[in-house]
Amino acid sequence: MVTINLTPIERTCKVDDTDREYNVMRNSKVKNPQLVILILSAPNNLGKRDTVRNTWLKLYDKDNENRDVGSFKIKHYFVIGSLGLNADQLLHLSSEQSEFNDILILPIYDSYKTLTEKVKRSFEWLNDQYDYGLGFKYVLKCDDDSFVNLKTLPEEINAIENTYLTDLDSSLRPALQETEYLSVNLQVNDRHIKPYNLNIYWGYFSGSARIKSRGKWKESSWIAADRYVPYAVGGGYILSKDLVTFIARNAKDLRSFNSEDVSVGFWLGPVNNVLRIHDIRFDTEWTSRGCRNFYLIIHNVSQQEMRIMYKIFLESKLFCLEEIEIRSHYVYNWSAPPSQCCKPFSESVIKLQ
Question: Which of 99, 138, 196, 323 could, after both became Cys, cross-link 352 (CB 3.0–4.6 A)?
Answer without folding.
Answer: 323
